[in-house]
Design a protein that fits this description.
The chain folds into 3 domains: 3-81, Structural Genomics Hypothetical 15.5 Kd Protein In mrcA-pckA Intergenic Region, Chain A, CATH 3.10.290; 86-179, Pseudouridine synthase; 181-338, Pseudouridine synthase (2-Layer Sandwich). 22% of the residues lie in helices and 28% in strands. The chain is built from 8 helices and 15 strands. It has helices spanning 25-32, 38-46, 126-134, 167-179, 254-262, 278-282, 284-293, 322-333; strands at residues 3-5, 9-15, 50-53, 75-81, 97-100, 104-109, 158-164, 183-191, 198-202, 205-208, 211-217, 226-235, 240-247, 298-306, 313-317. The longest helix is centred in the middle third of the chain and has 13 residues, at 167-179. The radius of gyration is 22 Å and the shape is globular. The termini are far apart.
Length: 338
């Protein structure tokens, strides 16, 4: 079927015939809409842009599994959003600048700001803010889509990030991250109290085979990851604790995945905390405090590295933000046992 344009994108409709029985959904769509690559179709499905009719589908008819097998008579609606500009545009957004010189800038990123444009976050990102602040000198450093970005923090993780302002600084900082010589310490408020109080969490991290939108410790196909942790303080009779994590590697969602694997997920984490069932056992006060936070209680508190031009080691610290401190106070006030 053809497509019509509305709501900043194009809508298509297709139907599975007798010869399509058993085909993967992403394959069927790619065959019917040859302008879309198989990988693009897969991304559209995972982003919730495909709905089905005449089949058992998720709430609202949305299908998020590209490998779903189709049956004759089923029909599918596909929404293809308009392409966003390939080059991020400058936007004058507030930035908490910790340090800046001609080579680099260190930002204390607020929760809710994505590091760079991506599906679901086309603008209002750190990259957009840096382009406005640094001007044309930043454009293209490390790639036009992520200029200046050497590493990233999740959108709802707050704390320290460094960005490069020229190619030489970008190359030098990237080399330090690759060599794992960057000092990084995260502070997290987690459910329960890890035992032992100090240790290491290892385990390769890759896509969760049961949910491709999240990461997990996997037996095969992942990348080696190591997190060293220390319990800094117990909270609320042990219902929670403040844990410090130092990264020996830098994998996607590493701290969040490893703490969840340990059995002590980060409070407020919408992706990794729910499956452990601690919320139901922790008591209403602690659960309400975590829900009120509205994001994972994770903050990048320390960042240290060798300056790419001077060769001197520089070190930055960031206090826990107000919303996490409010959570901590609430947990201490309500001495709720597990």
């Amino acid at each position: 079927m053809g497509g019509d344009r509305r709501r900043n994108g194009t809508h298509h409709g297709i139907a599975a015939g007798p010869g399509d029985a058993g085909k993967r959904l992403d394959r069927l769509i790619a065959e019917r809409l040859p302008a879309l690559s198989r990988s693009r179709v897969k991304a559209l499905i995972q982003a919730g842009n495909v709905t089905g009719h005449g089949a058992q589908t998720a709430t609202g008819g949305t299908i998020t599994d590209p490998s779903r097998r189709v049956k004759p008579g089923q029909s599918f609606a596909i929404f293809v959003p308009d392409s966003s500009p390939a080059i991020p545009q400058p936007q004058a957004l507030p930035l908490a600048i910790v340090y800046e010189d001609q080579d680099l800038i260190v930002i204390d990123k607020q929760a809710g700001m994505a590091a760079h444009p991506a599906p679901g976050n086309p603008d209002m990102t750190l990259v957009n803010a840096l382009l406005a602040h640094c001007g044309d000198t930043l454009s293209g450093i490390g790639g036009v889509k992520r200029p200046g970005i050497v590493h990233r923090l999740d959108k709802d993780t707050s704390g320290l990030m460094v960005a490069a302002k020229n190619d030489a600084a970008h190359a030098a900082l990237s080399k330090q991250f690759a060599a794992r010589t960057i000092e990084r310490l995260y502070r997290a408020v987690v459910w329960g109290v890890p035992s032992p109080a100090q240790g290491e969490i290892s385990g390769a991290i890759g896509r969760d085979p049961l949910n491709r939108k999240r990461m997990a410790v996997v037996a095969r196909g992942g990348k080696k990851a190591l997190t060293r942790y220390r319990v800094a303080r117990r909270l609320g009779n042990g219902v929670a604790s403040i844990v410090e994590c130092r990264l020996a590697t830098g994998r996607t969602h590493q701290v969040r995945v490893h703490l969840a694997e340990l059995g002590h997920p980060v409070m407020g984490d919408p992706v990794y905390a729910g499956r452990h069932g601690r919320k139901a056992r922790a008591g209403e006060a602690a659960s309400a405090a975590a829900e009120k936070l509205g994001r994972q209680a994770l903050h990048a508190s320390i960042l240290g590295f060798v300056h790419p031009k001077t060769g001197k080691h520089i070190h930055f610290t960031s206090d826990l933000p107000n919303d996490i401190n409010v959570l901590i106070s609430s947990l201490d006030k309500n001495q709720t046992g597990v």
